[in-house]
Design a protein that fits this description.
Blueprint (H helix, E strand, L loop, with lengths): L20 H23 L9 H8 L6 H18 L11 H11 L2 H14 L4 E7 L5 E7 L10 E7 L6 H4 L3 H12 L2 H6 L3
Antiparallel strand pairs: 1-2, 1-3
The structure holds fe (iii) ion.
């Protein structure tokens, strides 16, 4: 099977002024596309050529001879998930029921935002900040380096923020904390996040 670049769930300029059409054009059209092209090339004659993206990720995770396959497959999954974690006029508050779950896990919605921002800002170099449900259903914040992702650690991803520089440098330069603040206040698609818990 051939892996394909999924379309963005909104127009390229839909997240302006927070994330520019220029950023989405490069991030989706060049970076995300490159992971798809690379994975298809790596899998051409591989036993996992007909496996689903999730199978490829889980089979390749932690295997020294499959690092390239893991990195490209995981980055395809991570980016598709990230696009859906945002929407125009997003941010604000989740539903009362999901907010109650965040309050149970992090004491308050504000504390959740602080901890998520802290993870995103302190991820050294390239990576991702996540809200996940662990195998017992407990909500947790994770940060992962490069392409690493929750499913490789037995967790279900609920929300992610891409903190690779390519996600924010054209709009925010080195100001990762401002990008993360904007992500939390104006971009999160809480309906999508909540739907991942079902
Ligand atoms: Fe990215």
């Amino acid at each position: 099977m051939t892996h394909e670049l999924p379309p963005l769930p909104y127009e390229k300029d839909a997240l302006e002024p927070h994330i520019s059409a220029n950023t989405l054009s490069f991030h989706h059209g060049k970076h995300h596309q490159a992971y798809v092209t690379n994975l298809n090339n790596l899998l051409k004659t591989h036993p996992l050529a007909d496996a689903s993206l999730e199978e490829v990720i889980l089979q390749a995770a932690g295997k020294a001879d499959m690092v390239g396959i893991f990195n490209n497959a995981a980055q395809i999954w991570n980016h598709t998930f990230y696009w859906h974690c945002m929407k125009p006029n997003g941010g604000g508050m989740p539903s009362d029921s999901f907010r109650a779950k965040l309050e149970a896990a992090f004491d308050s919605f504000e504390k959740f935002c602080e901890e998520f921002k802290q993870a995103a800002v302190t991820q050294f170099g390239s990576g991702w900040a996540w809200l996940v449900a662990d195998k017992d259903g407990k909500l947790k914040i994770l940060k992962t380096g490069n392409a690493d992702l929750p499913m490789a650690h037995g967790c279900v991803a609920l929300l992610t923020c891409d903190v690779w520089e390519h996600a924010y440098y054209l709009d925010y330069q080195n100001r990762r904390p401002d990008y993360v603040d904007t992500f939390l206040k104006h971009l999160i698609n809480w309906d999508f996040v909540e739907s991942q818990l079902a």
